[in-house]
Amino acid sequence: MKRTATATTCAAALLATILAGCSDSTGDTSGDGYGSAASSASPSKAATVDTKAASGLGTILVDEKGRTLYLFLADKKNKSNCQGDCAKAWPPLLSKGEAKAGKGVDKKLLGITKRSGGDEQVTYNGHPLYYYAGDKKPGQTNGQNLDQFGAEWYVLNAKGKQVDS
Questions:
Q1: Neighbour-count burial for 16-47, b at 16+ CB within 10 Å, e otherwise
Q2: 29 has pLDDT over 90
């Protein structure tokens, strides 16, 4: 019994350590993604959505630094259903005001939706956009086709459609 309690305690401590590693102590959510706390602070500038060729996935949406953006199938048009722990693992792309269209991005498909905390999240073709905390550097697509928080996650192409792999 004592061994089970110790294992449970160790597992809980490990999980807490992993989750703590998913947050950025600066609180900056200006779209730098990769482990930043989802909606704890407002961004300081307008986000830019760009495109980039991704191996095996074609041309996909990324931010201005080349970090992959995802859609969540549980979202409704222009409405995020990713809050709390979900938003820690999948930080939303936040913007201060209208997002900017980079190369290959259709400005008419860009939009903004209000999150439950009041932050403005970038949308593309009605899909709220997110980073994946498991992508540690630009160009990674580790979140592609994952089933987490009740639905699947996909990268988007320049037409705003999910890319199946």
A1: eeeeeebbbeeeebbbbbbbbbbbbbbbeebb
A2: no
How sure is the predictor about 61, in pLDDT bands with cuts at 50, 70 and 90?
A: very high
Percent helix, strand and coil across the chain, each to the nearest 5: 15, 30, 55
What is the C-alpha to C-alpha distance for residues 146 and 74, in angstroms, rounded to an integer? 13
d(CA 39, CA 76) in angstroms, rounded, equals 19
H/E stretch holding 110 reads: strand 110-114
**Residue 79: both structure tokens together:** 């409405």
pTM score, whole prediction: 0.77
pLDDT band at 55 (very low <50, low <70, confident <90, very high): confident
Nearest to 105 by CA among 154, 64, 74: 64
Q: Provide the strand spans (E) within 116-156.
A: 120-124, 127-128, 147-148, 151-155
Helix (H, G, I), strand (E, B) or coil at 69: coil
Give 104: exposed, middle or buried? Use CB within 10 Å, 0-12, 13-18, 19+: middle
